[in-house]
């Protein structure tokens, strides 16, 4: 059963609807004035930069919402109706997975190993990494990773960094949501363990 964003519950079928309010004709939310920037956000005009926005009322604070149809991630704030919006890349069609998760682990400069399914699907590309890759600038998980769990079970989905900013706003990954390395560091420091994560249904 789908639920509206303002009434998001722990269900696997989630319809985000328009999470964000007051969207300008250019597609971006109205940016706060520099003097009204209590969350230390960059005020550089970069469309990928984290931005304070108005969201649907009733969203609990301290929750991640990923809207795959708009390539946006929202971190809801204690201030009612406010969130920090991040631009993301998402999983390509057939690999994106919606649902309700929790942050079950966090890692700085995480190591990475492709899943068995990834190796089977594309052995020419992934088999060489079957023993894993240490963390670092060339690692696909980037500078930080939030590991998404269903209960106590690792889903193998991640919210992570990337050193390929051109992939933000596209559906290219093996199922994970990605931010630029600079902005995953910003998100990572805000999100505590066990935070709830909603990955909404994809319709486009």
Labels describing this entry:
single chain, 204 residues, mainly beta, L,D-transpeptidase catalytic domain-like, nine-stranded mixed beta sheet, two-stranded parallel sheet, 3 helices, 11 strands, 10% helix, 29% strand, globular, disordered N terminus
Q: What would you call the structural class?
A: mainly beta
The CATH homologous superfamily of the domain at 5-17 and 47-104 and 148-199: L,D-transpeptidase catalytic domain-like
Cα-based radius of gyration, to the nearest Å:
16 Å
CATH class of the domain at 5-17 and 47-104 and 148-199: Mainly Beta
Q: In terms of per-residue confidence, which ranges show pLDDT below 50 for 5 or more consecutive residues?
A: 1-13, 23-34
How many individual helices?
Answer: 3
Organism: Wenxinia marina DSM 24838
Pfam families: YkuD
Protein name: L,D-TPase catalytic domain-containing protein
Region (Disordered): 19-45
Structure description:
The chain has 3 helices and 11 strands, in the order E-E-E-E-E-E-H-H-E-E-E-E-H-E. The strands form 2 sheets. A 9-stranded mixed beta sheet has the order 1-4-3-2-11-6-7-8-10, covered by helices on one side. A two-stranded parallel sheet has the order 5-9. The chain is mostly beta strands and 204 residues long. A hairpin with a 2-residue loop joins strand 7 (144-150) and strand 8. Helix content is 10%, strand content 29%. The chain has a domain at 5-17 and 47-104 and 148-199: L,D-transpeptidase catalytic domain-like. The two termini are 19 Å apart. The radius of gyration is 16 Å and the shape is globular. Residues 62-200 form the L,D-TPase catalytic domain. GO terms for molecular function: glycosyltransferase activity; peptidoglycan L,D-transpeptidase activity. Keywords: Cell shape, Cell wall biogenesis/degradation, Glycosyltransferase, Hydrolase, Peptidoglycan synthesis, Transferase. Pathway: Cell wall biogenesis; peptidoglycan biosynthesis.
